[in-house]
Each structure stands twice: as structure tokens, then as C-alpha cells.
């Protein structure tokens, strides 16, 4: 590279690959020395430049470099590598911090480079934090963040050590794993999907794969016939020849305090109190005082 921006010189690279920048003799690199292709974008987003050593941006730098070699009393304290980061000491008394696998800078605008100026690193060398995870794209679902019951969507970010439960929308049911957990930028167990329930031993007339809004069809079962209706994108009742084959329950109308949760892989996942519907297998454990106890169960 000469005294120009890097974008004019590079070719297309594959996802996850990195490129290293180096200036021609007589020029100086300003900005990050390395960039990686992440989701179709260069990271970090700060673009490096090669400028001439007589460029106004670095005027006086050569003289300062000479003073720096002589004035040993102005050296900066050493920065050590840690389990989270690697510190590379460059020949011109600056350092580059590189995050190890599973860690990242707190901000995407940090490039990890610091220069020793009058005994102080400028800017302050950054720390590396565990990577977050981005929720993969799934249709007909939303996600509930564990402990807080915050509602998340596909593409949202969850922090390291955080888990979320996938909740299917009305008319769909979960097939497979519905709990995701983030560990240093990696979702530990792949989540599955919410699908329309498979038709059980029945035939639909007229034979069609879709119904328009307001349209009806007849589900012919061995013991009875069921009329299906489409309203605002939802078919009711759920097409099935098995009685009570619902995939959700409407929320109770009372406002009695309750602990609401479901069990996934032996772990209790708490759900939000103000949902309009809950998936099969949800428990409501009501909180009642001894003087208010009535006959019958306190869990549903």
C-alpha cells in the first residue's frame, strides 16, 4: 500500500478470513493493522490509511521517535498477556491487543492498538470480554430471556452465560430443542423449529394446502368431522383427529400471584405472567396464604 486508503487495493475475501495491512517504505500506517470479514462487513470498522512520513498527520513524529529511544525514564508500564488476550509489542514502542478465541472488545470501534506517550499508554489498552451470541433466525416464534422474561426476537443479542426459551406462536408447536444458551459467542445446543402440527389420520376437503382469510374446510376423521376456519392467518381449531390435541393454553383470567414455569431438559424455565397463551407443559404454581387455602390443588 502507498499513501492511500486500503479499500482500493483489496479483493473479495471469504467470511471469517482476515487481511493484514502493510505500508510501502516511506509511509506510515494509521489505524488497525488487521481486519476480518464478519457477516459481510469489515471488523473493526475503522479503516486504516498509509500516509507519507512528511504528511501533516504525523508531522514531528520522526523527531519524537528519536527522543523516545533516548529518554528511557519515559517508558510505559508493561502490559501482560492474559487468558483473555494476547499483547503484541511492536518495534516502534506501541502494542497491539488481540482477543483470544471466544473473547472480543467491548466496542466494535476499538482496534486494540496503543502507543506509549510520555510514560502513558494512549489510548488505554482495552480489555477483552466474553463474546455475546446472536439469536438465529426462526419463524413463528419469540424468545423469553431466562430470569428476566424479556421478550427477544431472532437476530437479537444475548450475553455470555445467558439462556433463552423459544416459544411457538399460536397454531405451531415445537419440534426438538427450544432452549438456547450462549457460551463465549457460541450457542451450545442448536435450537429446532416451530412447525404446523402434522395431520393425524384424516383428510381435508377441499384438498388444498392453504386457506384464505374467512375460508373454511372440512377435516374428515374416522369418528367425526371437524370444520376448520381461517381467521387473520390462524386456522382454528388445530387440524387434528386426536381429541384435545392443542399445543397451548389460554392464560388464566385471575390475577392471583403465581410462579409460572416449564421444564426443559430437567431445568426450570420461568415464564412471564402477562402472556396471552402458554405452551403445553406450563406449570402455574399459585402463591396463597395459609388462611386463604381452599380445597384442591394449588398448581395447574
From TrEMBL:
In which compartments does the protein localize?
Virion
Domain Sushi, which positions?
Answer: 1-52, 74-130
Entry keyword set: Disulfide bond, Signal, Sushi
Write down the superkingdom of origin.
Eukaryota
The family database entries (Pfam families) matched by this protein are listed as: Sushi
Known InterPro entries for this protein?
ComplSys_Reg/VirEntry_Med, Sushi/SCR/CCP_sf, Sushi_SCR_CCP_dom
> Is Signal given among the entry's keywords?
yes
Q: List the disulfide bonds.
A: 23-50
Could you tell me what this protein is called? Sushi domain protein
Source organism per entry reads Ancylostoma duodenale
